[in-house]
Each structure stands twice: as structure tokens, then as C-alpha cells.
Amino acid sequence: MRKFLAVVKHEYKKIVLKWTFLIGTLLFPLIAAGFAIVPAIIFSIKGEPTRIAVVDQSGKIAPRLKENLSAERMSAKVKQAAKDSLTDLNASQQEQINRSAEQFGASFVFTDYDFAEKPLEQIRRELGGKITAKELDAYLIIPNNLDSADAKYEFRSRKAGDFGGERNLRDALNEAVRSERLAGANISETQLKDLSRNVDFDSKSLDEKGDEKDSDSVFIASFVIGLMIYITLAIYGQMIMGAVVEEKETRIAEILFSSAKPFELMMGKLVGVGLAGLTQLAIWVISALVLVGIGVAQMSAAGMSISIPNISPLMVVYFFIFFLLGFFIYASIFALIGSMVTTMQEGGQFSLPPIMLLLIGFYFSFAVIRDPNSSLSFWVSIAPFFAPITMPVRILAETPPFWQIALSILINSLAIAGLVWLASRVYRVGMLMYGKRATIPEVWKWIRQS
Amino acid sequence: MNEQTATLRVVNVTKRFGDFTAVNDLSFEVKAGRVFGFLGPNGAGKTTTIRMIVGITHPDDGEIEIFGEKFSMEMQNRIGYLPEERGLYKKMKVQDQLRYFAALKDVSQKEADRRIDYWLERMNLSEWKTKKTTDLSKGMSQKVQFISTVLHNPDLLILDEPFSGLDPVNVEFMIEVVAELKAQGKTIIFSTHLMETAERLCDDIILINKSRKIIGGTLREVKASFSKNLIALRAIGGDSVLEDKTLVAGFVKHADEREIELAEDADAQILLKKLIENGAAISKFEQIEPSLNDIFIEKVNETNA
Question: How far apart are CA B102 and CA A6, in angstroms?
């Protein structure tokens, strides 16, 4: 037992006292936050406004188009769109919407161009020349006859990738032409707005007590939990493999085996690395809870309500239990692979199957989030290999009856017992086999021997 | 422990791997406080035997007794094993590795730290205590590995090619250290391919080949049993004596001396007397013992044939 604890301490310290552990612990939340924030930042970067010349041969569209593209109208549109998708707006969201609306509004500058009496060919040539000379970014030619079958609205631009701007222009143009047609049909714009108003779609899911919960935040939280377990299992599993391969590669195994039982050595390694993983997860979970807590407290102090998923302490306990189950399942597989191969590169090839299993489990968690009570969700959340990811997701999405959780824990514990038994047999023999990678039949022989 | 008790007894031990018999009905004893040379060519079964002694594997048949008792895992704490294939953790500090190896032998950290300081000092490695393995030269790593073998103050030491990767100066230094450990009453099993070193260090030897024991005993006995009555002679005159077939079976001429093989039952003293009587001026007359190297090569070739 003392030797076992010495191994645990050795493995734990080897990971936790390294600077990479600190970096990883700090980096993961930053990366996760980065995934959420960076796209928003990129899209909010404002380009130069597009200088555009509008050639309105009909003479009816240009004023409406300019009005549709004005800053005030754009802001109103963006706000309306945001209101449809978000029910409660908080201050920062409100501000963000205002900001992006202003940007859209300011994205076109109209340049005057006198096209009177000029033939179309000459107009095109002259405007094209201006674009080449960089006096102009784009031009739009509106045909004389708006509704004839061959009427074409010509838009030519220097900025090939400005999809947002192009879409706004097209929408504004369509709207302007539609208004013109409606005016022709004697329908006023207020009447039109009335007719085409969107319905108010209020989406919330119910938990087992019948309380409403916000489906968006549950989806995000479940996804984050699934991702977190998936990533930590993959990383710490490979760490186990690295540690095993190192001892084999450097031939330390022989010295170790002359000092302690192989089973003690392997279990010590699994437990030590597992505790390191648990430490990292605990830091993440606790800091996430504290940060969310502070954030919520501040927002409610400012009179704003924000919906966060309701996470009970029991859920956190389950979360750690299933992490540990998953860890021991995958760690024993990786330990087995590590004792079969001779180098880390070879190990990399063999680690594809367990990584695929993890990935499938992660994908199943989407099915579980979508319908936590389906029979598929039931089976994947008790099946070994998948349950460590899918069950915590399911518990968060909609906590299943206790017997299902208990069954899942039982089945996965049995799987661990079997896998540890297999791994320890392969470990005992494989660690002393130098020179070449073991074949599957050889490994099978080691398992059956003695 | 007195000279007569056996620290290790290997009794009719056999170990098979599938169809291959790695060790076949092997028996020998290692007496307490002596240096025991465990010799044999590559693939003879040495490593397999040693692994059984240190409890990494277990015999299929036969028994291993250590310190007068049947082998048990607790005995690992009293054995120090330096394997031929060995290494250190690459990114760990020297002190931390040694602490870990000591902890695996149930040595308390306080005691381990004291011994680590002593041994690093003894090996002139004190300034490397907090350096990582990757900073050490090959010779230095070898010495650190040696320290890890003796940190728990074992009664039985098993050293498999302990001097590989060391320069001649360090080999001499390590031989001194091994002699020191022997003087402290440790029993040492020493496995090597360097016959000269074995000859200098070992009290007893065993030679195994193809999973079986070929010869064994004290170094003296083994050499005596191989004595071929060779004499190195450097002399001027007396050539007629060498033609006497009752005394000399034959001779080979080297640069300025002759290697003479005595005839069966002939006495070296009579040869010397006759040479002097015949007026030979003798500057060298020496009975040659076969070297361990010669015995090794001859015996291994014999059993391979």
C-alpha cells in the first residue's frame, strides 16, 4: 500500500507541478471563451463604407433605396431581428445591437453621378473606369422598366467578399421595388407591415417538476459539459499512455518491477493521473460556478434577469463520478496500448480506436440533448464507453430516474474491472518486451497466460 | 551472516516461454559476502534467471531461496537490481528520481535524502542533484542508476553489466565502490561479458549456455580444472631438452619466447632442472593459467557444437 501511494504521489506531482498543467488549466477557459467571443469581434470589425453610384433609369427607386439604407432604418431592422430571437435583452446586448445597427447604416456612401442622356454602354464604361481608378467602390444600374421580364439590376463591385453589405443592398433594393409595386396597387406601407408581422414564438422546455427552463442555456451547458469530459478524457488518457511508454522506452520498467508489483504500479499510475485530471476539472468547475455566480449577482443587482441552467450540487457530484468512470475506462485502454507498443508514435496509431469511441460518445450527446427521454438516449447513457459523456449531459438536460443512473454506474464499474484486469495482464508482460511492437495474437497469449 | 551461509539458492529452476525453454533445471548457490560472477553468452538465460531472482517473473519448476527462506515479494526491499537495459526519467531531477526509487523500496524520505546526499558525494555528482537527466552525460547517468540500486542498502546486489558506458577511469572507480560494498558484507551477483573484470572481481563463478549450467565453482577451482600445463619460456640455449617427448608435447614460438605444452604427467620442475643442466640461460619460466576469457570461449564453443 505504501508503494502504491508512492506511485500515486509520483504520477500526480509529475503532472500537476509542471508548468504545462498551469497553462492548460488557465488556457482551456480562455479558449472556450475565445470560441464564443472571437467571431463576434471579427464580425463587429467595421470595414470602410462602400462608395456607390446609383444609376436609376426609372427615376422612382433611388430615393426609396437611399432611405432604406439610412442609419435609422438599418438600426430599426437589426433591433427587430434581435427581438425576434431573444426575448429578454440585457444592457450589453442592447448596446451591441445599437452598435452593429450604426455600422450597417454607415456602410454605404452615395456618390453623385450625372448619367442624363448617356447610353448604357457609356455609363458602364465611365463607372467601370472610376472603379479601376478607385474613385468608386461599386455601382448599381436600375433599369427603366422595373417589371418587364428582361429587367436586370446590375450591381458591380470591387469588394468581392462583402456578403453582408451586398445582402443589405439587395434587401433594401427589393424592399424599395416592392414598395413601388405596392404603391402601384394602392396598398399603403402600414397596411403591408401589419400583414407581414412575425408571430411571437416563446420557446422554453419543462423539467421534471414542470418548471420552465430556458432551452438555449440548457443546450449550451450540456454541450460544454460533454465537450469538457470528452477533452479531459482524451488528454489524460493519452497522458497515461505517454507515462507507460516512457517507462518502457527508458527501460525503467525493469527497475520498477524489481521494486513493486506490476498491478500496484499500474493502478498507482491510473489513480495518480486520474487525481491530476480531477484536480484540473475541479478548478474549472469551481471557477466557472464562482464566475457565473458573480456575474448573475451583478446583473440582478443592476436589475437585469439572466437565465442560467439550474445545476444542483448533486449534478456536480454525478459529473465527477462519471468523469472518473470514463477516466478509468479510457485510461486502462491507453495503458494497455502503451504497454503493447515501443514508441509514442506507434501508440498514436493505436489510440485511434479509443479516440473514435470517445468521439462517438460525444456525438451521441447531441442526440441526448435533443431528446433526453428517447430509448436511444437511455441505451447510450448506460452503455460503457459512451455513458461517461452522455449520462452527465442527460442528467443536465433532463435528469433520468435514479435507477437508470445507478444502473449506468454499475455497468461502467464492471467494465472498468474487466478492462483493468486485461490491461494489468498485458502491462505485466508487455513492459519487459523490448524491441518490437506486440501483435494482437501475442497480446491475447499474454492475457491467457498464468 | 558467516561465509558458509548461502544468500541465494537456485534449486532445479526451469522457466519456459511457450515452446522455448529459457532456463533448464538450473541449480547454484551464492555464498554470503562474496562476489559471484554470473557468466554466459547473449541469450544463455542470464536475464531470465535474474528476473526470477528479483521476483519479476517466477519459475515454472524448482525453487528460489533467498536469505534462507523461500522467495516472497517482501524480499524485493532487500535486493538491489541494476538491469543491463536501464534508464532514468528524462525530465526529472536527479534527486526526485532517486527519492522515488527509494520510496518504492520502502525507504522513508528522510533516510532516503540522507543516503542520496552520501552517494552523490561519493560519486562526485553532488552538484548535479537538482539537474535533469537530460543534462547528464552517459557515464553520469550510469552512476545515478547505480545509486538507485544501492539506496535502500540491500543485502543482495545484482549488477548486470554495471560498467557499460563508463570510461576506464570510471570503471576503476566503480570497481573500487563494488569492493567497498563487498567489504561491508554485501553479497554481489555480477553479470558481465568483460572476462578480465570478472576475473578481478569474482570469488566464485558460474558459466551458463543454452539455458544450462556448464561449469561453476570458485574462480581458483575453475581455472585449475582448465590448466593445460602451459609454460612460457624465454631462454638462450637448451633447445635439445625441448625435443624430449617424455617432457614436452609441443611448443609454439612467439617473438622472443616459446609457449610450451608439457607432456602428460610431466613435471614442470624437472623440465626447469634439465634446462639448467643443459646450460640454458633462462630469463623467464612461468606456468601459464588459462584466462577466464579462454575458458569462456572454449566452453561455449564446445556446448554450441
Answer: 10
Suggest the residue from B57, B92, B100, B147 to mutate for an interface test with chain A (most A CBs closer than 10 A).
Answer: B100
> Which chain A positions have a beta carbon within 8 Å of B89's beta carbon?
246, 250, 252
Query: Residue A252 is nearest to which of B73, B79, B87, comparing CB atoms?
Result: B87
Nearest chain B residue (CA) to A260: B104
How many Å separate Cα B156 from the centre of its chain?
A: 14
CATH number corresponding to A51-69+108-201 = 3.40.190.10
C-alpha cell of residue B204: 566464485
The pTM of this model reads 0.74
Q: Is the Cβ–Cβ distance between A303 and A90 less than 8 Å?
A: no
Q: Does residue B198 contact residue B292 with C-beta atoms inside 8 Å?
A: yes
Domains of chain B: residue spans and CATH: 6-224 (3.40.50.300), 228-288 (3.30.70.100)
Shortest Cα distance from B245 to chain A (angstroms)?
57
Tell me the shortest Cα–Cα distance from B49 to chain A, in angstroms. 13
Residues of chain A with C-beta less than 8 angstroms from the C-beta of B136: none
Positions of CATH 3.40.190.10 in chain A? 51-69+108-201
Residue with cell 438555449: A216
Q: What single-letter amino acid sits at A409? A: I
Task: Write out chain A residues lying below 8 Å of B15, CB-based.
Answer: none
Tens of pLDDT, residue by residue, chain B (305 residues)? 444 688 899 999 999 888 889 999 999 999 999 999 999 888 888 999 999 999 998 899 999 999 988 888 889 999 999 998 888 998 899 999 999 999 999 999 999 999 999 999 999 999 999 999 889 998 899 999 999 999 999 999 999 999 888 899 999 999 999 999 999 999 999 998 888 888 889 999 999 998 889 888 898 888 878 777 788 888 888 788 888 888 888 888 888 888 888 887 788 888 888 888 888 888 888 888 788 888 888 888 888 87
Phi, psi for A124 (deg, rounded to 5): -60, -45
Rounded Cα–Cα distance for residues B275 and B70 (Å): 59
CB contact under 8 A, A258 and B79: yes
- Say how many CB pairs under 8 Å bridge A and B: 61
Instruction: Measure the CA–CA gap between B102 and B107, rounded to whole angstroms.
Output: 5
Indicate the residue of B55, B86, B92 with minimum beta-carbon distance to A255.
Answer: B86
Cα–Cα distance between A265 and A91 in angstroms, integer?
56
Check CB contact under 8 Å for B104 and A252: no
Q: A3 contacts in B (CB within 8 Å)?
A: 103-104, 106
State the Cα–Cα distance between residues B140 and B220, nearest whole angstrom.
35
